[in-house]
Design brief:
4% of the residues lie in helices and 41% in strands. By secondary structure, the chain is mostly beta strands. Strand 5 and strand 6 form a beta hairpin.
């Protein structure tokens, strides 16, 4: 298992900050095993990943699970990038605008596995992108975080993966299928 992570905060002034994060990881089976143990596999989505998707519902690759299934998409390779502009609102209240991108992939094709294997020539087409806004209640000893995100690029779509022209906040069905509220403690990175 190899993980590489880069985090950096750029203080713009007393009230504004830009925080960025990049993560890449690969896990390889050891010994006589041809599979990685489940607890060592990568996943994404949720409050500390790509916030426009629920936890473990993105990937591997261009795979899209049935919404009635228990979310459990994992992979052997993970790439993720996050950027967040953080600003003060009033006293304990802070705001954020963010964008997340990434996915998980399998190392190789396997008939029992779902999803697609990682390929240098095509992984960019399978990146998911989400964006949103957040409210933080920062009382110095802990931070309560509310992030509302929407998907901007869905990797399982075949022709037009960017879905920005489909955004319709007035449509209840669209909101139910696309708005993702994450509630968490602490900053995402």
């Amino acid at each position: 298992m190899t993980d590489l992570e880069y985090r950096r905060g750029f203080v713009l002034d007393r009230y504004n900050m830009l925080a960025v994060r990049a993560f890449g990881g690969v896990v390889i089976p050891c010994g006589n095993s041809d599979q990685v143990p489940f607890e060592r596999k990568y996943w994404t989505g949720g409050a500390n990943g790509i916030r426009a998707w629920p936890v473990r519902t993105l990937g591997p690759g261009s795979y899209k699970a049935d919404p009635n299934e228990f979310p459990n998409q994992t992979g052997d390779i993970k790439l993720e990038a996050n950027a967040e502009y953080r600003f003060n609102i009033y006293k304990y209240f802070k705001g954020a605008l963010f964008m997340d991108a990434g996915n998980v992939w399998l190392q190789k094709s396997n008939p029992s596995d779902i999803g697609t294997p990682f390929r240098f020539s095509g992984f960019m087409n399978e990146l998911a992108v989400g964006a949103g806004a957040g409210l933080r209640v920062d009382v110095s000893f802990f931070v309560l975080r509310f992030d509302l995100a929407i998907p901007l690029r869905k990797p399982w779509l075949t022709n037009q993966r960017w879905v920005t022209n489909e955004i319709d906040f007035t449509d209840a069905t669209w909101r139910r299928e696309n708005l993702m509220l994450n509630i968490a403690i602490g900053y995402p990175f």
